[in-house]
């Protein structure tokens, strides 16, 4: 047994060295390509300082901007969110960008280039977080974009842009506070109705109230000004952590996204009869907690084995069995009233998140779940309602933008001998991104960055410093090849 164990340990050690070998080789090749003169070497060293060292420092700074003391929480228009926006705006100005904040709290930084009236390339991600978040989700994409433009500024190329480039830090993507995602990017894309201003959080504060509390005089008229004219936009690019394990399993730092799964969010409310835990006989109870538990288990079974639930009539005949492989369903939040150990609850609600790469599959699951909920609730003598909180169709990335990003990634990684034969990975995203909303405005492209263990929405979320550098360098090369004279 000793020999195989030693062999596995040796392989593990060598695999662990791969990222180090990759970046040492990359740095050496960059320095060599810059020539032997001190001027060329200094320029590449400056790129390293900006794209890695400064970018990493800024991500960690944002990671400390939180509304909670012991974990990261930064939701739409919270005090921490406003502080984060101010920091990002300062960094945008440091990169030579003209900045402003729109009526939905999105922070913008723009470089006009040679032709300030041309269609603009947008680059962005979100500055809000989930509760008990990691520090790279969202922030990484904003900082990489600002860093790449700062490199153009210090190398005196920012004024040579063939079209305007605009970096956007979206105010809301996660949808934590108001239970509806993409408030920032959907408003820009023109797919968020003005009625969204009336949506309230758990404290009864509306979106409009929250905006006014932060000095945004957002009326229906000013809200309409957040929307961009599609004719003014060339395209959108987003850099984001993968939030999955594929790139790490391939020992590859970057990948190009070909599409994003569609998503439906529901809120299920179950109402029964509130009563004393010790005096109401079991056969007389109309317990919404037990009914809700039954519905949650039903959802799991439906999403694990959809073929056992869906009847293949004319409506579902078009669903290919292989499309079920990417189907995922989650109950992420549950609450009851009055929430006391000696009281049978009177009301329970829980959230449902359903995602699939195929929209027909997702819609079929939503419809089937809704039908089964009605049946279950009738049999348990409780009242059930289902609210549709969010619905987004699957979004597919533009082939030309994806090819340009792929070339930029290949240009970055092919400088190393051990990875030159590898194709740039292309991936589908099960997570939602601002690119989904912006796809209603313009063509989109996405670049994924490897994250440790594929862990995200957790304090354990982590991206290597040198992977941040690779992402910034790839974005810089994309800009230099496609948006510079």
Automatic annotation (TrEMBL):
Transmembrane segments: none annotated. Residues 1-34 form the signal peptide. Its cofactor is Mn(2+). It catalyses: allantoate + H2O + 2 H(+) = (S)-2-ureidoglycine + NH4(+) + CO2. It comes from the Eukaryota. Residues 262-377 form the Peptidase M20 dimerisation domain. One of its GO terms (molecular function) is allantoate deiminase activity. The keyword ATP-binding does not apply. One of its GO terms (cellular component) is endoplasmic reticulum. Keywords: Endoplasmic reticulum, Hydrolase, Manganese, Metal-binding, Purine metabolism, Signal. One of its GO terms (biological process) is purine nucleobase metabolic process. It is found in: Endoplasmic reticulum. InterPro entries: Amidase_Cbmase, Bact_exopeptidase_dim_dom, Peptidase_M20, Peptidase_M20_dimer. It is an enzyme of class 3 (hydrolase). CDD domains: M20_bAS. Its EC number is 3.5.3.9. Gene3D superfamilies: 3.30.70.360, Zn peptidases (3.40.630.10). Belongs to the peptidase M20A family. Homodimer. PANTHER family: ALLANTOATE DEIMINASE-RELATED (PTHR32494:SF19). This is allantoate deiminase. It comes from Dendrobium nobile. The lineage of its organism: Eukaryota, Viridiplantae, Streptophyta, Embryophyta, Tracheophyta.
């Amino acid at each position: 047994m000793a020999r195989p164990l030693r062999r596995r340990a040796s392989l593990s050690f060598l695999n662990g060295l791969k990222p180090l070998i990759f970046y040492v080789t990359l740095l050496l090749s960059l320095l060599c390509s810059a020539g032997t003169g001190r001027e060329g070497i200094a320029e590449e060293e400056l790129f390293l300082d900006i794209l890695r060292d400064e970018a990493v420092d800024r991500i960690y700074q944002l990671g400390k901007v939180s509304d909670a003391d012991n974990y990261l929480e930064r939701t739409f228009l919270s005090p921490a969110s406003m502080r984060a926006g101010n920091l990002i705006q300062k960094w945008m100005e440091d990169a030579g960008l003209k900045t402003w904040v729109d009526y939905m709290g999105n922070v913008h930084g723009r470089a006009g280039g040679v032709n300030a009236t041309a269609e603009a390339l947008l680059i962005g991600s979100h500055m809000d977080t989930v509760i008990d978040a990691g520090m790279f989700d969202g922030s990484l994409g904003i900082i990489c974009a600002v860093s790449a433009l700062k490199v153009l500024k210090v190398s005196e190329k920012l004024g040579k842009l063939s079209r305007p480039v605009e970096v956007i830090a979206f105010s809301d993507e996660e949808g934590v506070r108001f239970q509806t995602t993409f408030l920032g990017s959907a408003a820009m894309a023109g797919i968020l109705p003005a009625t969204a201003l009336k949506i309230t959080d758990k404290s009864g504060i509306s979106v409009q109230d929250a905006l006014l509390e932060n000095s945004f005089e957002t009326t229906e008229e000013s809200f309409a000004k957040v929307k961009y004219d599609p004719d003014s936009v060339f395209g959108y690019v987003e850099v984001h952590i993968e939030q999955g394990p594929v790139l790490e399993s391939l020992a590859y730092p970057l990948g190009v996204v070909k599409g994003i799964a569609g998503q439906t969010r529901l809120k299920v409310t179950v109402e029964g009869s509130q009563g004393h835990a010790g005096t109401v006989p079991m056969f007389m109870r109309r317990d919404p907690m037990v009914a809700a538990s039954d519905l949650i288990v039903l959802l799991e079974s439906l999403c694990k084995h959809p073929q056992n639930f869906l009847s293949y009539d004319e409506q579902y005949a078009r669903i290919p069995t292989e499309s079920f492989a990417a189907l995922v369903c989650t109950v992420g939040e549950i609450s009851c009233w009055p929430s006391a150990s000696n009281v049978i609850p009177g009301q329970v609600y829980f959230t449902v998140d359903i995602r699939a790469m195929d929209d027909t599959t997702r819609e079929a699951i939503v419809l089937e779940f809704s039908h089964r909920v009605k049946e279950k609730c009738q049999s348990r003598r409780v009242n059930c309602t289902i609210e549709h909180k969010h619905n987004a169709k699957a979004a597919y990335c533009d082939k030309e933008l994806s090819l340009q990003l792929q070339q930029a990634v290949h240009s970055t990684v092919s400088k190393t001998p051990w990875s030159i034969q590898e194709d740039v990975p292309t991936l589908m995203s099960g997570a939602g991104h601002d690119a989904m909303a912006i796809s209603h405005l313009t063509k989109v492209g996405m670049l994924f960055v490897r994250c440790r263990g594929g862990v995200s929405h957790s304090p354990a979320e982590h991206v290597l410093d040198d992977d941040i550098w690779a992402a910034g360098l790839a974005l810089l090369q994309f800009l230099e090849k496609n948006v510079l004279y």
